[in-house]
């Protein structure tokens, strides 16, 4: 058996084993590609009329108003959007699972909307994309290692696609869909040609997706891009609870410090500690709609002393190393947001092609299987004329 036949068998059986998983993950990825843009249209409560020289309410006031809307649950933080955007206050927990967001007018404190994100359509699609709607501990590794299998399929598919000889005829077969051929040939071309054109983007989507679910892969990439550094466990700095509390509303004081220097196009998030050991996190996102270009700060809730942490999600973006910046960019690369709208369009079409590959591949296999099972008709000899 030749190498190409072995690759073909591997491609076939891995494809049949992972086809449904690849289809679900890819098609949900298509839907999620424009989540930010769609929500900006269907959620008008995300916006408010800017008030010239208007005074924004501090976090403590907005927290108190929001917590009345979700009784018995503590607010996790207050997120001030860009100028012209409402404030949103998130509430979430794991036992039982809940996730609410309260949208408020930052000038008046008016409640604009309370959203149960667990019932949101995109939240449902996100669970399918991450976990196949299975329990997280089961679904995440299944999706992650299924994506690894898909990466192998992309590579073996490239080997099978590669022509033996680069002639005009082979180039036409490899780079063009023969639309006027029979439907089986068109299906075959739709499996090979778009798959080749989307190969580079599909591998990027696969690798950036696997980083979320395969720890050894993420650690290896981090190690290779930081000059041999080990990826530290994510741990928030802790407050010194032995200290005497010096401030009544420490979140308000931090907010006043940062809101004055925050650009109008940036968003500002301040966390609200629930326990004495928790620090107060402050993050400034200079490019809302993405996540990578964010400065992260932590402060002792008793003394407001600046605290430091390790890893890519601490400190200012501009002072981070290349490896830390790349890790921060991972999600935005995965969804195409790193290149703004054109990047999302590329991610959408790459995901759409990835979703089509199991379908067209299955049709190719089924057609060949039926062809092999058809028995040749026995020809009955006709008597010769005398």
UniProtKB/TrEMBL annotation:
Keywords: Membrane, Transmembrane, Transmembrane helix. InterPro entries: PepSY-ass_TM (IPR005625). Pfam families: PepSY_TM. It comes from the Bacteria. The chain crosses the membrane at residues 12-34, 142-163, 194-214, 345-366. This is PepSY domain-containing protein. It comes from Larkinella terrae.
């Amino acid at each position: 058996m030749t190498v190409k036949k072995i690759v073909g068998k591997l491609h076939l059986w891995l494809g049949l084993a992972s086809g449904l998983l690849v289809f679900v993950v890819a098609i949900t990825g298509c839907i999620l590609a424009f989540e930010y843009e769609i929500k900006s249209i269907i959620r008008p409560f995300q916006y408010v009329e800017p008030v010239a020289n208007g005074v924004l309410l501090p976090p403590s006031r907005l927290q108190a108003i929001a917590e009345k809307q979700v009784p018995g649950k503590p607010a996790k933080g207050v997120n001030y959007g860009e100028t012209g955007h409402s404030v949103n206050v998130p509430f979430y927990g794991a036992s039982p699972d809940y996730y609410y967001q309260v949208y408020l007018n930052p000038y008046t404190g008016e409640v604009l909307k309370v959203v149960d994100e667990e019932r949101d359509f995109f939240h449902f699609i996100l669970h399918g994309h991450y976990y196949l709607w299975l329990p997280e501990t089961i679904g995440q590794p299944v999706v992650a290692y299924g994506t690894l299998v898909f990466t192998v399929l992309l590579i073996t598919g490239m080997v099978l696609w590669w022509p033996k000889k680069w002639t005009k005829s082979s180039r036409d077969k490899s780079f063009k869909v023969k639309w006027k051929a029979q439907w089986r040939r068109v299906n075959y071309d739709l499996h090979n040609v778009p798959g080749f054109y989307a190969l580079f983007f599909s591998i990027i989507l696969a690798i950036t997706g696997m980083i979320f679910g395969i720890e050894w892969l993420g650690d290896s990439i981090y190690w290779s891009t930081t000059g041999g550094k080990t990826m530290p466990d994510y741990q928030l700095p802790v407050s010194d609870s032995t200290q005497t509390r010096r401030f009544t509303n420490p979140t308000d004081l931090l907010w006043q410090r940062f809101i004055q220097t925050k650009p109008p196009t940036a968003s500002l998030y301040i966390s609200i500690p629930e326990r004495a050991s928790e620090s107060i996190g402050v993050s400034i996102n200079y490019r809302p709609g993405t996540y990578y270009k964010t400065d992260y700060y932590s402060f002792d809730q008793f003394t407001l002393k600046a605290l430091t942490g390790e890893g890519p999600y601490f400190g200012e973006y501009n002072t981070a190393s290349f490896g830390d910046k790349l890790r921060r960019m991972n999600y935005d690369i995965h969804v195409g947001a790193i290149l703004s709208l054109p990047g999302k369009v590329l991610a959408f079409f790459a995901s759409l092609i990835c979703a089509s590959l199991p379908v067209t591949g299955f049709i190719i296999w089924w057609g060949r299987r039926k062809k092999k099972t058809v028995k040749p008709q026995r020809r009955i000899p006709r008597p010769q004329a005398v």
